[in-house]
Amino acid sequence: VGNTNAKAFIILKGGKIALEQYYGTFTMDSIWYWASAGKSLASVMIGKAQQDGILNINDSTSHYLGAAWTSCTSAQEGSITIKEQLKMTTGLKDNVPDENCTDDTCLIYQADAGTRWAYHNAPYHLLHDVIEQASGLTLNQYTNQKIKTPTGMGSGFWFDHVYYSKPRDMARFGLLCAANGNWNGTPVLIDPTY
Question: pTM for the complete prediction?
Answer without folding.
Answer: 0.93
